[in-house]
Design goal:
With 253 residues, the protein is of the alpha+beta class. It folds into two domains: 7-107, 2-Layer Sandwich (HIT family, subunit A); 152-252, Endonuclease Chain A (Endonuclease, Chain A, 2-Layer Sandwich). It has four helices and nine strands. The strands form two sheets. A five-stranded antiparallel β-sheet has the order 1-2-3-5-4, covered by helices on one side.
Length: 253
């Protein structure tokens, strides 16, 4: 842990939602719903059980404050919340720095929300439907290319021979571009028209990823005259109506 550089500590204080002496709250970089926030300890401790009692109290105080702020800022106002944490790699923790998720929930955001945080193990969430029931709600996360995205293996084969490919995403990261690069350039070589629209929602889009997309456009013009590659950035504050959120994920092939 001594050599670990927490990504949370790289965020400027201007990005904090709220804070106290021992913890701070920020928006999640990969939100599962609009307003998804994280409460993080200022000191790097790996899990909840490694934190001091004062740190645990400070974190829970900010969970309450973050909820109050989100209730005020979000429109529509959340109908409920999931609050939880992952402690250890086997429990799904990927960043070894204690953080508690505060996830706004909305009526209708999934067909049957019963079971709540129990859905961390697919098929075990809604105990009223029985273990392993085929009716258990399952969410499929579609993105520009997250390495563990279950939908990407279904999309990639469809790009071969496509004449048009359109991608709409609220943000883009280099890891996503790494995943889709080869498939997109093979489609370009075959003469496909590719258009990508990404946003700057919550400033999650990585500048390096945008620079790579610009380079891809230049390369496409030089190397693939029969194809077409266009990228646009939606600046949320410049959109008509200035929406409070912009979180689409869609492919058109």
């Amino acid at each position: 842990m001594a050599d670990f550089e927490s990504p949370f500590l790289k965020l400027p204080e201007s990005a904090w939602l709220c804070s106290n002496e021992l913890a701070f709250a920020v928006f999640d970089g990969f939100p599962v719903s609009p307003g998804h926030a994280l409460v993080v300890t200022r000191r790097v401790v790996e899990t909840w059980f490694d934190a001091s009692s004062d740190e645990q109290k400070a974190v829970m105080d900010l969970v309450n404050r973050a909820k109050q702020i989100l209730d005020t800022r979000l429109n529509p106002r959340p109908d409920g919340y999931n609050v939880g944490l992952n402690a250890g790699r086997s429990a799904g923790q990927t960043v070894p720095h204690l953080h508690v998720h505060v996830i706004p929930r909305y009526s209708g955001d999934m067909p049957d929300p019963r079971g709540g945080v129990r859905h961390v193990i697919p098929g075990k969430g809604n105990y009223l439907q029985g273990s392993g029931s085929s009716d258990t709600p399952m969410a499929l996360h579609l993105s520009t290319g997250h390495p563990k995205d279950p939908i990407w293996p279904r999309i990639e084969p469809r790009l071969q021979g496509a004449t048009e490919i359109e991608i709409l995403a609220s943000f883009v990261q280099p890891s996503g571009l790494d995943l889709i690069q080869s498939a997109l350039f093979l489609a370009l070589k075959a003469g496909a028209r590719i258009r990508i629209l990404v946003g700057d929602y919550l400033f999650i889009t990585d500048p390096e990823a945008l620079q790579r997309l610009r380079l891809w456009m230049d390369l496409a013009k030089e190397e693939f005259p029969h194809g077409c590659f266009e990228v646009r950035l939606a600046e949320i504050d410049s959109l008509a109506g200035r929406p409070e959120s912009f979180h689409p994920k869609a492919w058109r092939i």
